[in-house]
Amino acid sequence: MAEWTPLLVEERIVEAADVLRRLPEEKVRGYFGVWPEIVHDFADKVGQEPQPMRRPPPSSASISRMDETLPWMSWLEPPAAKIIWLRASGKPWKSICWTVGLQRSAAHQHWLYGLCVISLKLNRRRFNSNLSKRRVIELAGGAGLREA
Fold it and tell me: Nearest to residue 15, comparing CAs of 114, 119, 88, 74?
């Protein structure tokens, strides 16, 4: 990859959150049922709610990308990491603001700042940690990024 942008970083984090949701649930080892699986006739299924469709499990390549992506969150301050992860999980801004206790504009700035910090570190560009959030966003080229 030539250069990481905040938009590419966001797409990768959203994919990682999706992969985590699609992984099969962990089952306790050693416990199992000896009852046979019940086979329902058509008459038994009349009037029942249809079972929700499940997406297939993630591919090994997407799991590898997720394993590569998750450590990126440790590069961020806790509020920015939490906002980015909640946003990648599909939470609306109103719910995110209630969770982290920030106004919408401040939460958006933390989100954008976090994406820009990750993209700068992935591109191995140095920046002073004393810079303001706005300056880091300008440095990474994240000013044009808008939330969905």
Answer: 88
